[in-house]
From TrEMBL, chains A, B, C, D:
It comes from Methanococcus voltae (strain ATCC BAA-1334 / A3). The keyword NADP applies. It is found in: Cytoplasm. Residues 3-140 form the Semialdehyde dehydrogenase NAD-binding domain. The gene is argC. GO terms for cellular component: cytoplasm. The keyword NADP applies. Pathway: Amino-acid biosynthesis; L-arginine biosynthesis; N(2)-acetyl-L-ornithine from L-glutamate: step 3/4. SUPFAM superfamilies: Glyceraldehyde-3-phosphate dehydrogenase-like, C-terminal domain, NAD(P)-binding Rossmann-fold domains. InterPro entries: AGPR, AGPR_AS, AGPR_dimerisation_dom, AGPR_type-1, NAD(P)-bd_dom_sf, Semialdehyde_DH_NAD-bd. This is N-acetyl-gamma-glutamyl-phosphate reductase.
Length: 348, 348, 348, 348
């Protein structure tokens, strides 16, 4: 049996790891779950909904990394914090799945520019989007778990980019639930400010932009980093989920493509992917993926101007974070990729 | 392996049965799922979120009861419809779990009075609240699955009633999510009518009242049906969950009871009950039981007037319907009672 | 023309005073609006929605009370703060409307007990519920504006109490929107904690309890402070509004009273009250009073146990605070009582 | 004094007309309000929140147009119905404000193509967007009140189009509240389908597209109908409001334009427009315009790819329908343009 530890266990991603691992047949133990602030306290103080799920004796610890000997460690730590933790675990030979942005860029300078942080140094990490990089992930000891917005955005148009039928400029207009802002209370998450409201934030410089762009560029044949990704997230009045509306324009020579042909491109591209589901637009909902590791994709319509619209729906905390992290663990540990995360959405 | 069928599979309870059974290790097959209106259609037409969960080839059927040979049949049929279906299955020796109100009353006249329907005749049914009637359920071939409100209301004060420390008059002020109104659209469920609103309906004559009352009376020593239950449900602006606020008055001789003693009464009463969790009030939330089979209980405070307040939280579609139905199936089939329903709430 | 000042203008009650005063025909000027923290800043920084409403040059000030010479001052200050501000204004002969709890109790010891504060000394204040105390308000220079919960609770059963037809024990089960918690962000108001959730807080010792009780006692003929009020508020997932469900029991001699007779009691009691509307239950909604100064009352049903249920709906920030404050100002200044607050709810 | 009638008064736009007209100082009477279905019933049956607002004796009528002699008639009738009603009123010399799409197109063939209806014949209507067409409106007897989405979309980028600094392709990604779907209940508006969800509908062929496009083309110097508008609305989980995110690309020669210069273009364009407010992004909210006739505009940021993003926020039922209709009435009747509609948003 396999033991895991979680670094930084008080947030929503830590909570979701525990929720999903509770029913994972290959995990018999959470060796350690760390928190400086809550050290010594039961995890039920912070995550009371996990009562009676096997964690009633599990406490947060403020522990030295030296003492961690799990097979797998999840770093549910913020950007900037992970890169001071991961190297030590990595060198011990522990398989590490990092949920922060610290190891997502092959090119450190892009990271440093967009995150405005000095990086501690590149490691040999795989970008943990299994649908695009499964073979690399299998061999990796460090997984950079993708950002929530990039997961939905990349999967939404990867088949179009690979097929080369859309122009270089793409716009992702994403709508995220409030859980994406984390567990800390702020004016941003103050109920009267969110409820009956919806609005964009980081209109032009969200750091997930280059993450999306570099992944799309990998799909372009003979890429010269042509893709020009514009990305704007909106905070919407629900708790979980990201709906991404991808606005793309067909290249002139593909203007007469039929919707069926577009759907076929998607179905072929994702034919072996359990966690990507292709839908008619009417059938997609955020509740359909709520609590689930699925990424649902729909749309595929072209208007008079040659604009091709595609939408994707994910749960930001599952496929956009902890579920995908477990999917990556399953891959690197040789488990069934679906183990512990094969749930449909909690709809309605 | 065990096969099950579902009569009436297009509603929310049918949907939830499918969602939970998809990961139930003892169920290998949905033999039949019926719908007159959707006969011949894939269940994915109505329940698209179940795609890739093992049901992609499952279709609704409009089938004669003669052709049903499952080990267990769930009747997810409305009040009044069940009693025209259940007898035939029951006589064939099939174990039946009926989610309607048709077999919940030992006394048919109470049913006929409150449901304003003529009953087709009493059968030997067990009231399927395992926390109170596990031994009876084990031996039963027909389970009357409790109503959603009664489940939360009865469990919230059963220990007090059994202990005999509260007066006969109790008031349940319940707040339910909109999924309790079913899948059909109506002015009641029209978003602009529900959102930013909350209000009582059936202020005084909800048919769950006598169901609660007769179960509480069973707990009274030498009962002469003394309990006087007043119950008022409110429609609240969320989708899942029932929060029941039980207002009771301590008998004069117990006015000096301490909160700790009350908590102890509950912990003792439910000490073997996995699906009942006792909490401090601050720790309870409807999201903590969302999608889960737990009934969380908190409160236990007494005010200057001797009013003792207790609250319970359940997911109306799970512990209040389909989850409890599977719990009952597990009991009558001799499975682990937690099999397939041992999930915590989807919080946040 | 009349000039007003607002002490403590950065919260929701300050915001609502400005919103309503902007269209009040008798008020030509906000002389001062104070805030220590935002002193010098435009009120639009905190209340951007008031742009172009006549306040574009209005700034918060941190000003000595000596310099305030308005005809009317609204104290939108918290409990405990008001009593250090009001006396000085009161002695200058300024008419003061205090929105805190500091002057709501004739009996200072009750205040000190429930608010756990030492009071600076009683003043001659009128309890500002016009429907019950209009004549006293007319002559007062200091108005203690009622609490939000007491407003809805008292109005909901005042006619029953005055008529003497209900027992002494009454239970108010109230459901409030999140704006009642104020503008400050906290775990309590963190969107993921509120959304899809609903739960009681201060189950038994909310300080609005004695405020309700003493007002109801005033309505009892030859009262010996008999009323035994139990009050429990719930935080519900909407922004504005309080729905109060009053559970009362009819005295034995009135058990056969018809619903029509009860409605008649209410219509008679409130026949001259513009801001109280009597409804059938189906017609009431929180949106129907949203942004409005109305208190809508419905219910009036009696169950088998003699329980009589009444509900009231108000906007906690309007009839429950700033709207009622302006209603009080209208009365003490001799304006038309409806001036500036005669709006229906923003429904849907 | 002026009398008005409303044709089709049971929907949300009828309701909002009544709400706003109740406090309009120039309107002393609703002469007639029509409804075939509710004929003879009090308007309070359908709009109970209007009780005590001056309409307690107003009933719906099923009346011949011959009998209508108001100064102004609002047609709150659906697309297709208006064109069978308006001509008769228009010929009698009554000033008509039509809230449907029937008279919004100078070019009937565009209407017929997008609405898939045969038109009864063009009349001399002014497109009722006062910020662009005030002088024309002043002289008109028939006003085609703009669509809700077009109002927010057109106003959001009109200054950019007139200035000629953006490319021809523009994308409007709009998010609307559920009240836009009207009062009738349907699966689309069923609470469990909307709540915790958000998704596009009419991805590519919404009929508001040509309405936006033709208005933008009017702003282009020497236009050859160059603008290529792509518009996709999303249904979002709130009741009121439309947030439109306009994605445009700067022409190459304007790539170095500063944000301040863009803001200046807007402030100049709208300098005399009371109902358009320019904001920093952080200051905009849908609650800030809820119940209000303001259109708030923000954004103005340019990203690495030359994409310029602008957002607008309106209340779909006010500036997007009934408020704008009253604004138009004020203009054609020579009233103060702000009369009866000068309210800020109901925030929070």
């Amino acid at each position: 049996m396999t033991s895991v530890s979680i670094i930084g266990g008080t947030g929503y991603t830590g909570s979701e790891l525990l929720r999903l691992l509770a029913n994972h047949s290959k995990i018999d133990e959470i060796e350690h779950i760390t928190s400086r602030k809550e050290s010594g306290n039961s995890i039920l103080k912070i995550h009371p909904h996990l009562k009676s799920m096997g964690y009633d004796n599990l406490c947060f610890e403020d522990i030295s990394l030296d003492n961690i000997n799990s097979d797998v460690v999840f770093c549910a730590t913020p950007h900037g914090a992970s890169m001071s933790i991961v190297p030590q675990l990595y060198e011990k030979g522990i398989k590490v799945i990092d949920l922060s942005g610290d190891y997502r860029f092959e090119d450190i300078s892009t990271y440093e520019e967009w995150y405005n942080l000095k990086h501690t140094g590149k490691l040999n990490a795989a970008y943990g989007l299994p649908e695009l990089h499964r073979e690399t992930i299998k061999k990796a000891n460090l997984i950079a778990n993708p950002g929530c917005f990039p997961t939905g955005a990349i999967l939404s148009i990867a088949p179009l980019v690979e097929k080369g039928i859309i122009e270089e400029r793409v716009i992702f207009d994403s709508k995220t639930g409030v859980s994406g802002a984390g567990v800390e209370a702020s004016q941003t998450t103050h109920y009267p400010n969110v409820n009956e409201n919806l609005k964009p934030y980081k209109l032009t410089n969200h750091r997930h932009t280059p993450e999306i762009e570099k992944e799309l560029n990998k799909l372009v044949e003979n890429s010269k980093n042509n893709m020009k990704v514009s990305f704007t997230p909106h905070l919407a009045p629900f708790t979980r989920g990201i709906l991404t509306t991808a606005h793309t324009y067909l290249k002139e020579e593909y203007l007469s493509i039929a919707k069926d042909e577009i759907v076929e491109i998607y179905e072929k591209f994702y034919k072996n992917e359990h966690f990507v589901r292709i839908y008619d637009n009417d059938m997609v909902s955020l509740t359909g993926v709520r609590g689930s590791n699925f990424c649902d994709i729909a749309g595929f319509e072209v208007d008079r101007n040659g604009r091709l619209i595609v939408i994707s729906a994910i749960d930001n905390l599952v496929k956009g974070a902890s579920g995908q992290a477990i999917q990556n663990m399953n891959i690197i540990m040789g488990f069934d990729e679906k183990e512990g995360i094969n749930y449909c959405g909690l709809k309605p």
